[in-house]
Design a protein that fits this description.
- The complex is a heterodimer of chains A (173) and B (185).
- Chain A has helices at residues 13-18, 57-71, 84-99, 163-169; strands at 2-3, 33-34, 106-109, 115-121, 124-130, 135-142, 150-155.
- By secondary structure, chain A is of the alpha+beta class.
- In chain A, strands 1, 3, 4, 5, 6 and 7 form a six-stranded antiparallel beta sheet that branches.
- Chain A is globular and about 45 Å long.
- Chain B is an alpha+beta fold and 185 residues long.
- Chain B has four helices and five strands, in the order βαβαβαββα.
- Chain B has a five-stranded antiparallel beta sheet with strand order 3-1-2-5-4.
- The longest helix of chain B is centred in the C-terminal third of the chain and has 14 residues, at 154-167.
- Classes of the chains: A alpha+beta (173), B alpha+beta (185).
- Chains A and B meet through strand 2, helix 2, strand 3, strand 4 and strand 5 of A and strand 1, helix 2, strand 3 and helix 4 of B.
Chain lengths: 173, 185
């Protein structure tokens, strides 16, 4: 099982280095038009660009740390930030998921303040999102377990359990 | 010129807008230009609200400014042109940095399906040539938009986003390489 690729790559950054424009002269609209400096991952680095492969739990935790730091900052760009409660729920989910020994996810965040984690494999996919309206939204499917897709759109409370989600994600091969 | 009145109502062929490129063919490579907020490099490559019309009270169907997730049709663009587009787009708002582009075929996008729904196309790719420069941007004959089925539930939207994000890759796919996807059944 592999996490969905983000556009952040350090661990596999050499892949991009092989494909920089100019290495394949004459090819159109090519290849690896990704400016990806090869920087090491950093914990809670707010103002530095952090490029990580997102294939390790340390990377996922690092992103969450960044978002927690950013959410405490002034908001000069006018973009929404995740709420403190949503980030706390995300931290709890990550902790339980890591303890559940599933593959590390690819974290993501968007301009509305939604953030979450994604996985894909050849036979399945999973997405767990923490929404600006306080809900947990999830979609999990694996061909291997013979179950229909799990769809969740529920309010996050102190009693929210992630056990079912983690068990289903664990079925992705 | 027919114009769509609903989010994913019209057919993707014939073309919806005037311009030299006509409708987006399945074997065309399309590029999602990337930029990052300078504070946050993990930005999702497709946003729920732009691709699924979340929160829209009206739909812009004007050629060149259609709502949806913008992509560029690559067949007539050189590498340098795609690079320049990425930088120009990033510079339109402060605090953004160009990241280049990711690629997919239009046919690959159109073939994506949620599990158990083999007949339900999720994403449409509409031509959207911008033939005049205005406050929305410069002339862009290669502009197109991707729209996702707005009838999907939020969990289904999440699944669809995971699919399309994993389809776009940092290297140009061969024109037929993304057809017959594993989950497209």
């Amino acid at each position: 099982m592999q996490p969905v690729q983000t556009h952040l790559h350090a661990g596999n950054g050499n892949r991009f280095a092989r494909n920089v424009p100019g290495r394949r002269l004459g090819r159109r609209c090519v290849a690896a038009l990704v400016f990806a400096p090869m920087l090491p991952a950093a914990e809670s680095a707010v103002n530095a660009h952090v490029y990580v492969a997102s294939t390790h739990w340390t990377a996922a935790r690092s992103f969450l740390g960044r978002w927690e730091a950013i959410s405490r900052m002034p908001n000069p760009d006018g973009l929404a930030r995740p709420s403190k409660d949503a980030l706390a729920a995300g931290r709890k989910f990550l902790r339980q998921a890591e303890a559940g020994r599933i593959a590390a996810p690819a974290p993501y965040i968007d301009e509305d303040g939604e953030f979450g984690f994604r996985w894909t494999s050849a036979t399945g996919l999973a997405s767990v999102s923490f929404m600006p309206d306080g809900n947990l939204v999830a979609y999990i499917y694996s061909e291997d377990d013979g179950l229909p897709p799990l769809e969740v759109d529920d309010r996050i409370t102190a009693n929210t359990s992630f056990n079912d989600l983690i068990a289903r994600i664990n079925n992705l091969s | 010129m027919p114009t769509p009145v609903v989010w994913v109502g019209p057919a993707e062929n014939p073309a919806l807008c005037p311009g030299p490129l006509a409708a987006v063919r399945d074997n065309e490579v399309i590029a999602r230009l990337l930029h990052e907020n300078t504070l946050e490099p993990a930005s999702s490559r497709f946003m729920r609200k732009e691709i699924f019309s979340v929160g829209l009270t009206s739909i812009d169907n004007q050629c060149g400014t259609k709502d949806g997730a913008s992509v560029d049709r690559c067949d007539n663009l050189s590498d340098d042109e795609v690079m320049r587009r990425s930088q120009a787009q990033a510079e339109r708002r402060p605090g953004r940095k160009a990241e280049g582009a990711y690629f997919a075929t239009a046919g690959g996008v159109r073939q994506l399906r949620l599990p158990g729904q083999p007949d339900a196309q999720i994403f449409r790719v509409y031509d959207d040539a911008r033939l005049v420069e205005d406050e929305f941007g410069p002339i862009n004959r290669e502009h197109a938009v991707v729209r996702g089925d707005d009838a999907l539930s939020r969990p289904q939207q999440s699944g669809a986003l995971a699919l399309i994000i994993s389809l776009f890759i940092p290297e140009r796919p061969s024109q037929n390489s993304q057809l017959n996807l594993p989950l497209a059944r």
